[in-house]
Design a protein that fits this description.
12 helices, 225 residues, elongated, Serine Threonine Protein Phosphatase 5, Tetratricopeptide repeat, 0% strand, mainly alpha, 2 domains
């Protein structure tokens, strides 16, 4: 299990510039957002910063978020992690789940010079509850390892299961392993097999071997009945 946990122990979630999920209804704001993203893609960072700042001042959560990302990536003349955090908090308050996830990473990595795993877990949990699969993995791993939260295998299993349902292959393997061993859940080889099979189909290299081992165990159990 350690190889899979290593993927998540740091919970280093890559943050990219956010695109609008849907076309907005106000043409002026919509065009400006598209302009800002296009400007950024062209590499004109000073102009992109101005445009994202304008969007932020207009109350657009994606303006807050993208401006924050530019500060955290040192893509502005005077990067300010604390200003970036304030922008992310405002974007999160405006309902942007991506910003909650980013705040979890901000505190976990100590972007302001002070890692705070408790604060990281708090923000990851908010994003997880709002459906972020990456955050669900981060929350599960924190509970599994006792990083930023008391070690709680039942909570770890709950969130790995949610992330597994959301399609995360590593989480699919890990929840299978927990069902196989009875860690945090009642031992259930059939559920272990179910999740190992899904992980294997999704490309996890270790899952096929575990799937065979569980099949052998199920066959042995059937033979003793």
């Amino acid at each position: 299990m350690s190889r899979h946990l290593m993927r998540f122990a740091a919970a280093a979630i890559a943050l990219g510039l956010a695109l609008p999920a849907v076309a907005a209804s106000a043409p002026a704001v919509r065009v400006t957002l598209e302009q800002a993203l296009a400007t950024y893609e062209r590499g004109d960072l000073p102009a992109a910063e101005r445009q994202f700042r304008q969007l932020s001042q207009q109350g657009l959560a994606l303006g807050d978020y993208n401006l924050a990302m530019m500060h955290l990536r040192s893509e502005v003349p005077k990067p300010d992690p604390r200003f970036a955090r304030s922008l992310l908090v405002r974007a999160a308050g405006r309902g942007l789940v991506r910003a909650e996830l980013a705040l979890g990473q901000f505190h976990e990595q100590g972007e302001d010079g002070r890692p705070d795993l408790v604060q990281a877990q708090s923000w990851y949990l908010k994003a997880a509850e709002h459906g972020s699969v990456d955050a669900q993995v981060a929350v599960a791993t924190a509970f599994y390892l006792g990083r930023g939260a008391a070690k709680d295998f039942a909570q770890a299993a709950q969130w790995y299961r949610e992330a597994a349902k959301g399609g995360d292959v590593g989480a699919q393997y890990l929840i299978a392993s927990m069902y196989e061993s009875g860690l945090g859940v009642e031992r259930d080889l059939r559920l272990a097999r179910y999740w190992y099979d899904i992980a294997a189909r999704n490309g996890d290299e270790a899952a096929p071997y575990k799937l065979k081992a569980v099949d052998d165990a199920l066959a042995a159990d059937a033979g003793t009945v």
